[in-house]
Structures are given as C-alpha cells and as structure tokens.
Amino acid sequence: MDESASPIAPCDAMDEASTSKTPPTVAGDEVVVVESSGASDSDSGSSDEEDGTIHTEFLYRLMTTGASPRKIFIKLMELPDTEATMQQLSKFSDGEIWRLLFETVSRRQKLRQYNTLLDAVELIQRSRKIVVLTGAGISVSCGIPDFRSPNGIYKRLKEEYPELRDPSHMFSINFFKNNQQPFFSFAKELYPGKFQPSVTHHFLKALEDRGKLLRNYTQNIDTLEAAAGVKNVVLCHGSFATASCLECRHKVTAEDIRADVMEGKIPKCSKCTPQLPLSVYKPDIVFFGEDLSADYYTSVGKDVEDCDLLIVIGTTLTVAPVSSIPRKVATVPQIIINREPVTHHAFDIELLGDADIITQQLLNLLGWSETVAPSFKPLREESQESVRMSYWQSRNPDPCTPEDFKIVALREMYETRNLAAWLPESRDVYMFVPPARYIFPGATVIEVDRDDRKRGLLRRNPLASSSSSSSSSGDEDIVPPRPTENLLAPDQPSTSK
C-alpha cells in the first residue's frame, strides 16, 4: 500500500468542463464545442470508454494539424473570446495548454442521464452486480478513533513517540520491523470486538441479502463488514482478524493474541525456537511498503467486467491501487456518498454528508423498511435558493427584499463558503445543487463558482512544477496520453515497494 500514491487531481477549473461538454470540432478556422443532446453513449450503442478514446484521438488530430490550443481551451472552458483572454493565455506555452486539454478529455465523462436522488434509487433497484468501495467514513459513527483529526491517533503518537518523524510511520513495515511498540500501544483502540457495525454497514448487508452486491471492496481493517454479516467482501488492506509471525509465518487468530494486544504488549510467536528479533505476530493488515493480496487483484480483474453500478462510500480515493477502481469501471453509473466532494473523479450523482443519514434515506426510498432504524425520520428536499433564504431569515428577522438579499445576505453567507452550514440545525432537510449534487447534514462543501474557477485557472500556471518555463516562446515536446489506452485493464501486482 503506497500512501503517497494517489490519482492525478486536475485543477478544479477543469472538473466541470470535462463533464459538461463533448469534444471540440473544427469548422474552418473556428473551434466549435458541440453541446450534448442529452442522449447517453449507452443509448446510442457505444460505450463511454469508446467515447473517451475518440475524444483523445480527436484532440491528438487537432494538435497534429496545427489547431490553436488557446481557441480550443476558450471554447471548452466557456471563456470570453476576447483579446484580454488571449493575452492571459499567452502566459502559457502551447505545450502547457495542450497538456491541460489532454488531461481534461482523458478523464471519465459524467453520464448525463443520471442526476437525481430518485435516479440513484432506480439504479440500485435495477442493478444486480453492484460494486461498493468503502473507506473510513462508514466507521466513524461506530466510535472507532480516527487518525488525522486534531485529537486523533496520529497526534497522540507524535507526542508519545517523538522518534516517529511522521506518525503514519506506525503503519510502515520497515519501521515496524525495528520497533513494534508504537503500533501495539494503539492497536487496542482499533481491535475487533469493541465496536458495532454502523447503519451504512447494514446498508451493505441489505444489498447483499437482495442479491445485488457483487463485491464490497473495503479499505477498512476493523472487520465490521463481517460483524454486519456481509460475505462478499475483499479486505483490500487486510484486517485484524488474523496475525502472522514475521519470522516463520505461523498464523493465529485475533483472539489468540487479544490479551497481549489489550495490555499493549508485543505478542511473541509461540512456534519460533529460539526466539528471534522478528518472532512477532503482526496483524495481517497491509502496511505501507507491502503489496495488496492476490485476492484483491484477482477479484478486481473479474468484477470490472461484470459491475453494473459503482457506489463509493466514505473515502476520498487517495490511496492506490484501490483508488483506481472507479476509473476501471468508467462505463457504468457511479454514485459517491461522502462528507466532501472528490474533485479528481467525475461521479454521476454526489450524495454529500453523513453516510448513515444518506444510506438511511436511500433505504427508506427503496422501501426496505426492515433495515431502516425505527427512530429515523425521512428528510425533505429543498432547493439551494430556498435553503439560502431560510438560513438568512432565521438569523435576520427583519424583512429583506430580493435585491437586498443578493447584495447583503449572499456576501455574508459566502464568507464561510460551506454550503452545509446553511442547512437547518434540525437536520431534517437536504439541499439539491444542480445538476447532480445533494448536500445532507454533516457535509463539508466549499462552493467555488464557475467564474472563480476560471479566474483561478488563469491566475496561476497549473503546470508550474514542470521543467518547462511558462515564459518560453517556443513549444515544448508533448507526449499525449496514448489514444488507445484501455482504462479497464485490471491492476497488476506491484513489483516495487
């Protein structure tokens, strides 16, 4: 598991463009962006993978025939076609702009026919081979300590073990071989048996009970999927369920070493004679510097061919290779349930907020009442404009004209920028932000409007870290993505650590 490896995250300015337009075409000297008719690629009989390949090949042809990358960029980003815009773009070389364009069209394209919460419900109802990718966000409500919060495990580790240059080294296999004590000092806080599954875990079980769950790929090591009764699970990063001796590979269960772990002791191998420095039982979780199991690669290779819906819950997709799964099933509908948006991948429907609240709402809409908690009260949907006005009026009882609201209220409200802060404290409302984003209680959504994105892109050189200079008058050599690259090819086990 490589903590530093993460998907390329294109600048935010490119996100919306990459999901809202089809590729540009050329009419004489003009570059034209063709609006989508609203028909999906699947409706026309071609796949999104084929559509994405055509985008890249066509852009490559434009580049090789001498088309102006600035004109293509202006059309694709819907910038004003003025001298001032061209002057700002002149700060970048042709090579830099072409690279941005290739990065944009090679990303997954949103399926425009899926936008609403009811679309999500219908997709779940009709799908039979759903892949669910889960992360730490589904276990927070279970009471499992988090790592990166101000009072999380990493902060306490740094205080108690200053020799750890980075607290995450607690999960480094090289550090562990030299010093196991930091890990076992905190392992008891994460050990199985202390926690109960969340509502979201039971949502996974409901999918499986109805024959809809093809596989749950979990990045968690808490074994709560098993506690909820979910069987079709791939433990991408292993779990505490078993432990193996680093020296002789003798395997034991979590219960066999529970007493030592609960006391913060290092569990020694009962089979090694004589005892060696690495005669230690290490829980079978994947540390940084270790590869994922063969089971992961085998399952992914099969499932990307069969999956008919992807649901991502409680993860920002930053750790490879699991983060590549959405890209491998780019042709199927994709839904994300998370506290914050994931900007480096285009999902079809975004359900942002507390995962337990969102999955309860879905279960209620699906009519799976036996899985819905008796205390749950369905939330009601309101528009972004309605939520904004209610937020303002709850804090300013004096009458406010629409003009005053636009001038005063929005200016004050945008100081926080977190759209979820506008939701009522009663937590009985969720907000729809067109075209396909829902904001539920618990979300963190910092709004950046379209004009801000454009200005931000033009204010900075997004490729400043490259070896080329933005002031260079000549074009640099460009190696665009391979037009025929197969995005559905399964991962192969890494040979490097």
Q: How would you describe the overall organization of this protein?
A:
This protein has 497 residues and is an alpha/beta fold. Helices cover 34% and strands 13% of the residues. It contains 18 helices and 14 strands. The protein has helices at 12-20, 48-64, 69-77, 83-89, 94-105, 117-126, 153-160, 173-178, 181-187, 199-209, 224-227, 258-262, 294-306, 325-328, 355-366, 384-395, 402-413, 450-459; strands at 24-27, 30-33, 130-134, 213-218, 233-235, 238-245, 251-253, 281-285, 309-313, 334-338, 349-352, 380-383, 429-433, 437-439. The strands form three sheets. A nine-stranded mixed β-sheet has the order 5-4-3-9-10-11-14-13-12, with helices on both faces. A three-stranded antiparallel β-sheet has the order 7-6-8, with no helix packed on it. A two-stranded antiparallel ribbon has the order 1-2. Strand 13 and strand 14 form a beta hairpin. It is globular, with a radius of gyration of 25 Å. Residues 1-54 and 450-497 have low confidence and may be disordered.
